[in-house]
Task: structure prediction
Amino acid sequence: MSDENLSPLIEAALAARANAHAPYSGFRVGAAAETPDGEIFAGCNVENASYGLTNCAERVAVAAAVTAGRRELTRVVIASEGKAGPCGACRQVMAEFGDPEVVIVDGAGKVHRRRRLAELLPEQFKLDPPR
Ligand code: THU
Result:
């Protein structure tokens, strides 16, 4: 578990959360994903009038990191209203890129939980493609 300063990640998650597009649920989420070099990629939830097309904040942040060519995540800070953890789909998506520490913070940036992803999603699905 990294003890590096969490503040920049928390700030990035809160800033992303401020841009959440959540007119349907009213539940705003921001996420900030960190790479081994300390780079930060943020995302917010992006809802849609066709509800099922909604993108979760975590998956938007992961997509931003991957789009920039990164393939490894060390920590992911998730900021929302209460103490909500990442949904199952987002756990699986984060698992694709390592075993980041997942840090749950509230809307004020207060840390509530810190967990390894493997703890949040045991027995992850991994594809061992035929060669
Ligand atoms: N949401 C996230 O952004 N991340 C999660 O892990 C769970 C849920 C969003 C989706 C939707 O916009 C709102 O929260 C309510 O479900």
User: Anything to note?
Assistant: The longest helix spans residues 7-18. The two ends are 34 Å apart (CA to CA). The CA atoms of residues 19 and 42 lie 11 Å apart. Residues 22, 25, 27, 29, 45, 47, 54, 56-58, 86-87, 90 surround tetrahydrodeoxyuridine (CB under 6 Å).
